[in-house]
């Protein structure tokens, strides 16, 4: 058994001063049982806890660490920038450089605005879509997460035609009555939602590779259909690429699938590990933002020089290296090894993967939407999670999260992970 005395002491202390001991609920081990460990250092593909244990990390700070932790170029950029001052609230040249780079890398983005989190990016993109179209309704999909904004915190209602119900206490029903929630990968549901809300749909927001209920993929033709039906109805197609942007391809999921959304949301990777979000797209829509247009959006720390420097270093490294080729190869190896390990152990596992994003579901049924994901065996996942942790492999502490590979993972890390999984699955 791993010794985690110091972590346990810190967690007891944290519980006194921080609700649940954590600053984001997914970090608590509620879905798998037990308590989180405390990290004092992360480097490359490893995290080091305060008791001297270390783990091969597949959480990657929930997505940003695509180059591994503490990448030397990002650390250097932050250091050099910090000594010039940590925030100005006045335009700085780094904002222009990273904006230009994002417009170059993501074809559909003609203009981009920075904010401080993925939540803010999605919230602002929705407001912009509504302001631009002068309509209220937003279509979102079951199981897709777009941050914790009131109007987006909605799970499945009883179908496309009913109003969504708030997913969280403290969100008045009136705040979500314009959010229409339907299942993913179901064109008929989209058609029905447009029919029921004719002339009122401001836009569709979608995770192009849903990664917040495990990982599942769009079926062939599904996004082309979404593109067509939004265009035909004068609605804005918003790709929430907070997770997929710069990960499943240098130009995001939209490049991988060949779809041109009207607006895109970013976060995670574009901050290089510092708090950043951004949204961008067609100039005609983006120019509706204040100070040019009537849609208000702002931020005291938006375009923060440290965050811009870290993000710029990360994106430049991704562009100037063979990162995505390498990530695809590592991902393919992990997938092959995991499927073999599950087969050998006689454990039914559906392993979904897109590049360096993956999720192994404990189920024998294909997983293509939230309802499928919900049918997986979560108790088995919890045992698997703890077994892997004992073997020195840190997976996200929930069946409904994506795993992330970084360029810092070695072939050896992948092999050790597969060997650990083979061992753990035999004992499930
Ligand atoms: C993480 C995430 C968000 C929210 O980003 P935060 O920075 O946590 O606010 C939004 N959309 C998607 C797809 C995400 O994965």
Keyword list:
binds pyridoxal-5'-phosphate; Aspartate Aminotransferase, domain 2; 428 residues; single chain
Textual characterization of the structure:
By secondary structure, this protein is α/β, with parallel strands linked by helices. The protein has two domains: about 5-20 and about 35-70 and about 320-425, Aspartate Aminotransferase, domain 1; about 70-320, Aspartate Aminotransferase, domain 2 (3-Layer(aba) Sandwich). It has 14 helices and 14 strands. It has helices at about 5-15, 70-80, 95-105, 120-135, 175, 185-195, 220-230, 250-255, 285, 305-320, 325-345, 370-375, 380-390, 410-425; strands spanning about 40-45, 45-50, 55, 110-115, 135-140, 180, 200-205, 235-240, 265, 275-280, 350-355, 355-360, 395, 405. The strands form three sheets. It has a seven-stranded mixed β-sheet with strand order 4-10-9-8-7-5-6, sandwiched between helices. The chain has a four-stranded mixed β-sheet with strand order 1-2-3-13. Strands 11-12-14 form a three-stranded antiparallel β-sheet, covered by helices on one side. Strand 2 and strand 3 form a beta hairpin. Helix 2 (about 70-80) packs antiparallel against helix 10 (about 305-320), helix 3 (about 95-105) packs parallel to helix 10 (about 305-320) and helix 11 (about 325-345) packs parallel to helix 14. It is globular, with a radius of gyration of 21 Å. It starts with a helix and ends with a helix. It binds pyridoxal-5'-phosphate. Pyridoxal-5'-phosphate binds near residues 117, 146 and 277.
